[in-house]
Write a structure and sequence with these properties.
Elements (H helix, E strand, L loop, with lengths): L4 H67 L9 H18 L3 H26 L4 H129 L5 H29 L8 E5 H11 L1 H6 L3 E4 L4 E5 H17 L8 E10 L14 E9 L31 H11 L3 E6 L5 E8 L7
Parallel strand pairs: 2-4
Antiparallel strand pairs: 1-3, 4-5, 5-7, 6-7
Helix pairs in contact: 1-2, 1-3, 1-4, 2-3, 3-4, 4-5, 6-8, 8-9
């Protein structure tokens, strides 16, 4: 399955963006873990420092008591044991503030009890002169305090060691992962840049070719317009040049029959009559060709708001005589206002209604039904997506005439295409081709439905407003 380059670029950018986000998250986790380990290390150092200060103050106080007991000099009792106890208590409170681990807090509680015992020993040692018992008790108490402090330091070191091992383990995984993710993002970024650069150059090339094609197209349009104008002039001149010999043939034929009708053989008279009839058909054909060449010419000056109800009344007024001849009736629904060429739409409905009158059933009265409904372009089946929301009018002209084979539904709109011989129904086969040309000039659509013996229907779809093509 082929994947478009734009989709590849979007997927590449999405993967690169996801990789960058992933690398950022992993980097943040590493940095956070590193900061936590640094904080833990600082905490362990701070706990060890406070414990060491407490231990040093206790040992200094104990050394002072020993010196006093040996020398009985009061200098060893300065500062006093009470002051020394206050310093130790201050360090203990600082230690209490920085420890939030429950096991360590329980150790602190035990340490506090041991310190209180030690304070009593120090105060008692400062009051008595013979301190053998006091010294032994002091050593025992100091050993318990040292063991408790060592336990606390060991817990801090164990926690720090555990954190360090976890950090080392994840760092060994995360750092290569960040490197790989970053490398993938860089590769995708480079690929996207190269692809976009290639697409940009291709777009420039396409735009250059498009401008070249547009120039060629405009030149071809100008040539086509010029050719159309020349063809219209040729058709106009040719039709007038053809009309002149036909008029002469018709005139001389009339004079020939008027002067020598009784003298020429009956068979010759019949040949002259057939020649006059052929001249008449030729004149009609030329006039119809002229009409076809001029049909569908719509300019902004010829577009106006048209009341279709009034237009149909005028058309039916023009067709009143043939309608009465066929004992026909026309039923019309109210139709909305529409933009278009009054002359073109008049000719459109006149040709379609004339077609219904021409192909009426001889054994029953003709009935023509004209209905209309307003739809959106999407509802009307307009193929252009740009016109899907525009308003359209669908007009249906239904008759109860002889109908036609559905397989000829498209053929009847082609020029010179007839489903019946000239001897059966008069006409040149141009009327419906003119209708198609007028409808397309109004940016509309026309189609036909029918069945032999069941009548025919012409469906005309026209925009309510003439759309300006981009």
């Amino acid at each position: 399955m082929h994947i478009s380059i734009h989709k590849k670029i979007r997927v590449g950018f999405f993967i690169a963006f996801t990789a960058i986000i992933g690398a950022s998250v992993v980097s943040y986790l590493i940095a956070k873990n590193l900061m936590h380990n640094a904080s833990r290390l600082q905490h362990a150092v701070e706990v060890s420092k406070r414990l060491e200060l407490i231990s040093r103050h206790l040992k200094d106080a104990e050394a002072a008591i020993r010196g006093y007991n040996i020398t009985h000099q009061q200098e060893f009792l300065h500062p006093s044991m009470s002051e020394r106890s206050v310093k130790i208590e201050k360090e203990y409170r600082k230690l209490r503030q920085i420890i939030d681990d429950p096991p360590q807090q329980r150790n602190l509680d035990t340490l506090k009890q041991l310190l209180d015992i030690k304070y009593g020993q120090l105060l008692a040692g400062a009051r008595q002169s013979s301190g053998s018992i006091s010294v032994k008790e002091g050593e025992l108490s100091m050993d318990q305090i040292d063991r408790k402090m060592q336990d606390m330091i060991a817990i801090e070191e164990a926690q720090l060691s555990e954190k360090s091992r976890a950090f080392t383990f994840f760092s060994n995984l995360w750092i290569p992962a960040v490197f790989i993710i970053s490398l993938i993002a860089i590769i995708i970024g480079i690929y996207s840049y190269v692809t976009l650069n290639r697409e940009f150059r291709l777009q420039l090339h396409i735009e250059s070719r498009m401008r070249s094609y547009q120039r060629e197209l405009q030149e071809n349009i100008n040539l086509l317009n010029k050719s159309n104008q020349e063809l219209e002039q040729f058709a106009y001149v040719a039709s007038h040049d053809l009309q002149e010999p036909l008029r002469k043939i018709s005139t001389f034929s009339d004079r020939l029959l008027l002067k020598y009708r009784d003298e020429i053989p009956p068979e010759a008279g019949q040949l002259v009559d057939r020649m006059v009839s052929a001249v008449g058909r030729m004149r009609v054909l030329i006039n119809d060709l002229l009409t076809f060449s001029r049909a569908g010419r719509i300019t902004p000056d010829t577009i106006a708001e048209i009341d279709l109800n009034e237009l149909l009344r005028d058309v039916l007024g023009d067709l009143d005589a043939p309608l009465q001849e066929k004992k026909g009736a026309v039923q019309t629904d109210p139709l909305p206002m529409i933009e278009g060429s009054d002359t073109g739409l008049h000719q459109l409905f006149q040709n379609i209604l004339s077609n219904s009158i021409k192909f009426a059933k001889p054994e029953c009265p003709l009935l023509i039904r004209i209905t209309g409904e307003t739809l959106t372009g999407r509802g009307a089946g307009v193929p252009s997506e740009k016109k899907a929301a525009e308003k359209y009018l669908r007009i249906r002209v239904q008759d109860n005439g002889i109908g036609f084979d559905p397989s000829y539904a498209d053929r009847i709109f082609l020029i010179f295409q007839r489903l019946h011989g000239v001897s059966e129904y008069k006409g040149t086969g141009i009327g419906l081709a003119i209708c198609k040309k007028i409808v397309e000039a109004h940016q509309g659509y026309i189609s036909a439905e029918g069945a032999p013996g069941e009548g025919a229907a012409f469906i005309i779809t026209l925009p309510l407003k003439q759309l300006r093509e981009d």
